[in-house]
Write a structure and sequence with these properties.
It is a single chain. The protein contains 12 helices and 5 strands. The chain is of the alpha+beta class and about 280 residues long. It folds into 2 domains: about 80 residues, 434 Repressor (Amino-terminal Domain) (Orthogonal Bundle), CATH 1.10.260.40; about 170 residues, Beta-Lactamase (2-Layer Sandwich). Strands 2-1-5-4-3 form a 5-stranded antiparallel beta sheet. Helix 2 packs across helix 4 and helix 4 runs antiparallel to helix 5. It is globular and about 60 Å long. This is Transcriptional regulator with XRE-family HTH domain.
């Protein structure tokens, strides 16, 4: 049962509380709205302005759980606010913790200010939840993947194309790193977890993974300096800084190149060319 009056009031108040700079939008000299405009929120939630407007006007169909999650993320809701939104819509709130894909407002605020920087938000299993355009141009777009292919570790062992963006001399280490990382997550989350299901799939589908899994190596840490092999611009070396949200096990990863270096110049070029540089 949808509480349409409560839903409309909650959406309107959350929209009016958000400022353009909170979500990475320019304020503009002629803005008169108390907060965000309806069309801005609709764009952030990946829905039509008409659909969102009808919700604030207590009209329209009941949003699905997927649409509810999009509303919660677009409005930068906290976990408590997200759960409240789901209940207003008559849905059971999604689980919290490592299995959650709801990015915290604080992490989103930082991410929204990195539009001109290669940056991404990933889960502990390497699912890309958010990715700046420059990150997609550097490492390849990965936010639209579904199923086990969402996990970069899974793709590493099952899709040869997943290694194309990494220099060959790092392939062996990255294989060990992904196997070691998954081994640790399975130990942390236990049987029945998504991590355990991914490990079972990889044991079935990858001989390389089986060999590394049997080695039972844990504790490997990723290199701060990452070397990517861009299909057009060639080798690009970047330093990776990571900010961890411990409650959700999400990581904000930001890539920067040494100022004045050839890699820095290539990143600046990539920012201009974008994904067109691939073709």
């Amino acid at each position: 049962m949808v509480d349409r009056e409560g839903l409309a009031d909650f959406l309107r108040r959350r929209r009016e509380a958000l400022q353009p700079e909170d979500v990475g939008l320019p304020r503009g000299p002629r803005r008169r709205a108390a907060g965000l405009r309806r069309e801005e929120v609709a764009a952030l939630c990946h829905m039509s302005t008409d659909y969102y407007t009808r919700l604030e006007q207590q009209r329209g169909p009941r949003p699905s759980e997927q649409m509810a999650a999009a509303l919660a993320q677009g409005l930068h809701l906290s976990l408590a606010e997200r759960d409240h939104l789901f209940r207003l819509l008559g849905h059971r709130p999604p689980p919290r913790g490592a299995s959650s894909e709801h990015v915290s407002p604080g992490l989103l605020r930082i991410f929204d200010r990195l539009a001109d920087t290669p940056a991404e938000i990933v889960t502990e299993l390497g699912d890309t939840l958010r990715q700046t355009p420059l990150s997609a141009a550097l490492t390849g777009p990965t936010t639209d993947l579904t199923g086990p292919e969402r996990s970069r570790g899974y793709r590493w062992f099952t899709d040869p194309a997943a290694r194309d963006r990494h220099v060959p001399e790092e392939h062996a280490f990255l294989s060990r790193l992904y196997a070691s990382g998954l081994r640790a997550i399975v130990g942390l989350r236990g049987p029945g977890s998504r991590a355990a299901a991914l490990a079972d799939l990889l044991l079935e589908r990858s001989a390389e993974f089986r060999e590394l899994w049997d080695a039972h190596e844990v504790g490997l840490e990723p290199h701060e300096l990452k070397c990517y092999q861009h299909p057009t611009l060639g080798r690009i070396e970047v330093h990776c800084q990571t900010l961890l949200d411990p409650d959700q096990s999400h990581r904000l990863m930001v890539y920067t190149a040494e100022p004045g270096s050839e890699s820095h110049e290539k990143l600046e070029l990539l920012a201009v060319l974008g994904t067109a540089a691939v073709t």
